[in-house]
Every structure is written in C-alpha cells, then in structure tokens.
Structures
1.
Amino acid sequence: MRVNKIFAVLFLALSVLNAEEKLKAPDFTLNTIDGKQVVLSKLRGKVVIIDFWATTCSPCRQEIPGFVSLKKKYKGNIEIIGISLDRKSEQVVDFCTKYKVNYPVGMASREILEEYGSISKIQYIPTTFIVDRDGYIYDVIIGYRAEAELEKIVRSLISNEKS
C-alpha cells in the first residue's frame, strides 16, 4: 500500500512538471504565395494556427473552409498560416483563389519542415500546430479537426490568456 502511495505522489509530481513545460514555437519567416512575408514572432499576442496541408489532401480540403470561417470570426485575435507541401505553387494559388482563402499561405521550406518536424513528425496531413498568445505550442493536431472543435480551442486561448 505504501509503495502505491509513493508511486501516486511521483506520478502527480511528474504530471505537474510536464504540464509546466511549454515548448516555444520555432520562429520562421514564410514567403507567401501573394509575395508577402509572415514572421511568426511578429504575431505574438494572437493565437496562431499553423496548418501543414496540400491541395491533393482530401481532409485538408475539408478543413480549410473552417479556417476561413475562424479567420473571419476572430480576425483581430488569431492568425492562420497555411504551409503547403505541394510541389508547385501554381496549384496552391489556384486552390486559394477558388476557396477564397483569407489568410497567408506559403510553400513549405526545408527549414520550417525540419523545425516543426522535430516537434511532431509531419508524416500525415493535415498537421496543425496551435500556438498560444505567448508563442508556445499549445497543441498539435494530426488529421482533420472539425471547425467547432478548433473554435473551442481558439476561444479558450483567447479568453484565458493575457494579452
């Protein structure tokens, strides 16, 4: 019985330590398909959704209208950054025009893939990183996530964190 209590206390202590360990989102500069640049560190104070996706990925295509909607609804409080894994930017430009993507989209660079791949292997897409207002990774989502679920996370981060 005493051994169980010791393990319970150790487990609790480790859980608290792990909960306090936050990983800073690696900074990057992304050249967007419309000729601009997005610098992640300049977005501090906003919740940032970084979405690794491709035009040929069905779950990615399902998720993007939800991102467009969230950007409209929370435009002053969030930023969404689409990082395409497509080989040709022309198909990304056509896709973003067709689906009226209202947030910055750029092509993945080797550096960005290495930095974010070291946190969570980007083997499946979509892979989405949620970054809190202070620049720390709050969550990594692999696969499709419904807009309502993403909105709960965004609302929570907007309302529970300092500006």
2.
Amino acid sequence: MDLSRREFTRGARLVAALSYSRILGANDRVRVGYIGLGNRGDQVHDAFLEHGDQQTVAVCDLREEYMDLAVKKSRATPAKYKDYRRLLEQKDVDAVVIATPDHWHALMFIDACRAGKDVYVEKPLSLTVVEGRKISRRPSTLGGSRRWALTADRQPISRRPPSSSVPAASAV
C-alpha cells in the first residue's frame, strides 16, 4: 500500500489528537487531601471516589487503620499524616475534605483557607458565634477570594468563586 507523506501526516495528527483527548489536564482533576477518615469521613471519601475528576493525594487521621483503609480504597499512594497542619503544607493538595468531629471544623477550615486550599466541610461549619464571625470575614483575610465552604447539600468542589447571591457565612 502506497502512503503519501501528506496522508501519513494527516493520520498521525488524527492519532495524536485522539490520544490527547483521553488525558485529563490539571484543571480537569482536583487533588484532594482528606482530614478525618472515621465513619463519616469514610463515607465522604467513597462518594468522592465515584468521580473520576479527583485524585486522593493525602489522608490524615489519628488512627492508622483508618488511613490504611483510605489508601487502599483510593487506588493511589497518598501521603499519610497524623497532624492536619502537615497535610495543609503539602503543595500538591488543591482541596481538602474536612470530616472531623464538629468542634474542629472552624479551626481546620480557617487553616485550610489560609494555606490556599479549597475546602469541603459539612455542617456545622462552626459551633459558636465567634467562630462563625471569623469564618464569614472577607475571604481575602482567610487566604483568597476563591475559598469557601460547601456544606451538606453535596455540591461538587468548584474552583470558581461563588456568586454574590451566596450568603456571607457560606461564601468564605
């Protein structure tokens, strides 16, 4: 079969284009760190794993067996931490999921925002009025205008700022 140079080039471009269509770009994949992997944390981790646009890159819990189970489920080799602040220092984490006891939510949320991470945390976001006021301050004081909480309505992590119609308490 005689193949001209022009036909070969056309075919090569088509093959290259098809192969690139299957590669997820950096903006198509969210690298997630999970803080708290007990009962609810395990459920949230399972729910996030159903989506192909996330990658588990770090897990954090005080119990080693919870982290081992999450690592096994994640089909990856995420870093393991017992201190959530070390996880927040990791540069390859885009977003964190906070599934800890309720009294830790506000502190971890604020620390994650200051570290420049997007945050998924379920209600309650805070336990006291003082915590709520610290969270609802202007986003720039917490680390940027792109950081906010997503609560129990199960909305996917979004990397876009919330619209101005979002109440201040949830638009941090």
